[in-house]
Sequence to fold (228 residues):
Amino acid sequence: DIQMTQSPSSVSASLGDRVTITCRASQGIAGWLAWYQQKPGKAPRLLIYDATTLHSEVPSRFSGRGSGTDFTLTISSLQPEDLATYYCQQTYSLVTFGGGTKVEMK
Amino acid sequence: LQLQESGPGLVKPSETLSLTCAVSGGSLSGNNDYWGWVRQPPGKALEWIGTIYYSGSTYYNPSLKTRVTLSVDTSKNQFSLKLRSVTAADTAVYHCARLFVRGFWSGFCDYWGQGTLVSVSS
Fold:
């Protein structure tokens, strides 16, 4: 099974800050990675797929990088509506999610 | 495309949890689509349960494989989950989702149901 490890588990940041979340796969997954945003009581929302492709209607302040085993999600300028928990998911073989990263206001 | 879960919100320990996901605004029979179930225990991370193709082929999370059955009814445009011998650890919000095909029995989830809370308690 492919394990996905996210770090940090939580991050505190101020409005306008650049926030970067890391996701590491236990084996190489090429560029087969997706990122989701989840707000309390809501279903996850797809942000990025294939490691770098922004899903429709996702603001351009979100970006994804990486391939192989190491991936990042960056929010270039944190906005109030970005406070949420973020999950990575490998789409290489079966389905595995990371443990989540909660983005909070400092 | 819209997905809507339905089923009991309370299940007794040792019994079977049964949920259905109705798909509207599109067909279950797309070649590029898998359909899946994801759950989230309160305050915890997302956990994949299993994936089904419109043909009825399935793949399950190894940790749940002995207790899970997914099925599909293309005539009703819906798919279903059965989880047997439930315990309190199965209490979670259960989401159905469409997986846009990528790797081996995998894909990114671009459409989600709103989720339904299922509690396991006597």
Notes: The first strand of chain A starts at residue 4 and ends at 7. DSSP finds no helices and eleven strands in chain A. Chain A touches chain B at residues 1, 29, 32, 34, 36, 38, 42-46, 49-50, 55, 87, 89-100 (CB under 8 Å).
